[in-house]
Each structure stands twice: as structure tokens, then as C-alpha cells.
């Protein structure tokens, strides 16, 4: 008890010192690290390119669609760097796809995109896997028998099995306790990274490492994820057929064996394990969280849910599985799914970029080793591109005739050379899973639509929804 009390006191004192040291360079105003709302407001005074300091780290914040596009797309080569985020750096030690730079990043990204496409990402083969997985999801929802339940791990199991098929060549039973534990680890990692303590770790890692706290258990849990990835690789080694690769791991092992004698090859064991972890983590939590948000918003707006169901019934009915070809005949449904992604603003600050050399941008010089935050929040809420940016409004993606219309400021997957490698997979999953669910169920909650709070419970690296119980009533 004494240890616990002392640790809480020390933690509170350290937190106070840290927070009071985070000062905006042009003003004597305290700012919580990564506060997108503060950055958005300050941009109205200081413009769309601002410098601040998060601890000792010089950081440039880019605000608004035009600014972010000019950086990530028009000047892609200058802004291709990825910042060495301390939390991720400690876990992956610079290996893998997510935070690597230079030749390592180029080789791994090219290989990952090519391999995932070869195994069906964004194509008919992957569509079949998602359709099959959606049937398992529907079965688990039916088993609830219209009783309230927390959908969190129902959805993460389903989404994760799709990336597992690509990476590991298998799906896992929903009753597999080890699989469920790994999903809980992944959920905990994202929640920690989005918490105040997680953000402070990225600013003052040397200090936070000296203190007790959740980060200690998080790193232990992540080691279990690494061990899981290693075990899958070992099993693949035992029965690898170079002429018939089954999945991403097989392809990496084949390439690793081919380049064993090449000194500068990035196809080695550590990069393989780290990239497998990258795909398993990113391919599980982001899409399942978006679907969880979508169901919240449909419960909050039952008139939108009803209109989607009518459109789906007219075009597909309730007998066959939806396909991606149906999307063009479901403009309102497609608009709602896009609006969910825009409105939930899942990764508001974007993954941080990095100046690998001095950059000249809009008349400013961004010095080498500066962290760059191209704020996706400011793009998805840009008042110049959205009629009602703070409102959940599917009309953002519909023209006056009710046809689907694109919006260039729709960048939930970021843009440029560092955009999400799994974008086409995520789009397919969101469409097929959500349409399948609405074909067979109407969603509500015990307290009624007004009780559903769609504001995030945690907002940091990611905007994470509150826990809730829904009722899936068969149609």
C-alpha cells in the first residue's frame, strides 16, 4: 500500500512538471501534447504551418487540406520520413515497415504491397475471404438472441481473421482463448498509446521508464505478441515450399533465403518479425474500431440505419452476400460508410513524419530532425471542404441527385508515399461487414438512441469509442 501511494504521488508530481514544461513557442500558453483542438485554433492566428515543442522535440504542425496535400502529395519525397516514435522504437527497435526510413522502408513497402496484392488484397479472392468471415460474425450475433452485449471483441476477432488469412494463411476459432488474449493485448496497446501516459512516454521516455505504471505491463504484453509472431514463422519454416507460397510469411522466408548472401538486404529475420507484428496490429484494431463507431452512429441515428436497410434490401435483398460490385448501386450506404470514417477521425494527428534533411516549404525552412504532424483532423474537419464538418452528415458524399460524390479532403488513410498499405483491404472490409450486418439485423441499445454518446472516450494517437452494449435484433 505504501509503495502504491508513493508511486501515485511521484507520478502526479512528475506529470505536473512535464505538463507545465510543454509550452507553445510563440505563446506562453500550456498545451497538452498532441491536442488537435488547440492546434486547430492556433492555426487561425498563426497560419497553417506552426512550430511547437513537445518536450525538447521541435515539431512542425501542418493544418488544413491544402497544406497537408501540398506536403504529402506535391512534395512527397521531402515528407516521406517517419519519426522515431519512442514507444514504437522500443518495441520494434527500428525494424519493420512502420517506422523505418530509407532503403529499409522502400524495400519493405514495395514487397509488402506486392505480396498482399498477390494474395488478393483489394481483389475477388480477398472479397471471398471477407464474405466467408462475415458469415461467422453473423452467427455470433445471432447467438446473443437479442440480449445486450459489448461488440468489441466480436468485431476484432472477425477483422483480425482477415489479416491472419493474408499473413499467417489461417483463421482462428472465435473460441481460441490465446487468440482472444492477443486481441486484448492489441486493444490495450492502442488505448495506452492514445492515453496521456502513452503520449508522455513518447515525449519523455527516459523519465517515464524510471516510474511504475501501465507502460511496464504493456511492454510485457507486446513481448507475447512478438513470441506469437516468432512461433508462426518457425512453423512456416518446417513445411515451406518455395514453389508454392501460402501467405505473407512464406513469401518473406523465400525472399530471405534468396538474399542471404546480399549484405545490404533488408530481408532478414528481425525485419520479418517486426513487419508481421505491424500488419497484425494495424490490420486488426483500426478497422474493427471504425465498425464499432459505425454501429454507435447508426444506433444514434436510427433514420439513417433504416434508410440504409431499405436501399440494401432493394439492391441485394437478404439472401446473398454483398459484393464490392454492389457499392455503385448503394450510393447512400456508401456515403454513410465514408462519413463514418470522416466523422470518427480515427487517427487525428496522423502518424508523425520526420525531416530527414532540411526542407524548404511555403517559404519556411524545416530543419533536419524535426517531427512533422500533418493533421488529418484538420483535413477531415476543413470548413472549406465540408458543409457541416462537426456534424455526422452523409450528404457530404451525395450530390443533389442522390448519387455518390467524392471529396478530395477525404483522407482517413493519409496520403502520399506513407499512406496506409492496407487501405484497399480496409475499404472492402468496412463495406462488406457493415452491409452484411444491416442485411440481417437492426441495431439498438438499452437506453435508446439519445443515450448513445459518440464522443471518444480517449483521444490521443487515436480517437477511441466508449464501451457500450448493443442489441442486434434479427430482421
TrEMBL record:
Pfam hit, one: p450
Subcellular location: Endoplasmic reticulum membrane; Microsome membrane
Principal location class: endoplasmic reticulum
Signal peptide limits: 1-27
GO cellular component: endoplasmic reticulum membrane
Positions that bind heme: 420
SUPFAM superfamilies: Cytochrome P450 (SSF48264)
Gene Ontology terms: biological process: aflatoxin metabolic process; organic acid metabolic process; xenobiotic metabolic process
Alphabetic keyword roster: Endoplasmic reticulum, Heme, Iron, Membrane, Metal-binding, Microsome, Monooxygenase, Oxidoreductase, Signal
Cofactor(s) the record lists: heme
A GO term, aspect molecular function: heme binding
Protein family membership: Belongs to the cytochrome P450 family.
PANTHER family recorded: CYTOCHROME P450 2G1-LIKE-RELATED, CYTOCHROME P450 508A4-RELATED
Protein name according to UniProt: Cytochrome P450, family 2, subfamily Y, polypeptide 3
Species name: Pygocentrus nattereri
